[in-house]
């Protein structure tokens, strides 16, 4: 049985692929971002740290 969370990830992936197919400029942006990722890895690290702080820093232990 597929969990609802997995279905959500699949739908999100399909939406992203659909956007890239409908809007070729979005695909060009994704390609450029993937190429420039090797130069901007610190930005991705900073963003992931911010997401981690937003979701896990304020949680109270049960």
Which tags fit this structure?
mainly alpha; about 60 residues; flat; single chain
Task: Describe the protein in words.
The chain has 62 residues and is mainly alpha-helical. The chain is built from 3 helices and no strands. The chain has helices at residues 4-22, 24-36, 41-57. The chain is flat. The two termini are 29 Å apart.
Q: What is the number of helices?
A: 3
- What ranges have pLDDT less than 50 throughout 5 or more consecutive residues? none
Order of helices and strands: HHH
Tell me the major beta sheet: none
Distance between the termini: 29 Å
Computed structural class? mainly alpha
Short description:
By secondary structure, the chain is mostly helical. It contains three helices and no strands.
Set down the secondary structure blueprint:
Layout: H1 4-22, H2 24-36, H3 41-57
Helix pairs in contact: 1-2
């Amino acid at each position: 049985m597929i969990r609802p969370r997995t279905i959500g990830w699949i739908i999100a992936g399909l939406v992203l692929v659909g956007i890239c197919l409908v809007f070729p400029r979005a695909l060009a942006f994704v390609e450029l971002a993937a190429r420039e990722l090797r130069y901007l890895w610190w930005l991705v690290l900073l963003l992931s740290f911010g997401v981690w702080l937003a979701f896990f820093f304020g949680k109270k232990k049960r």
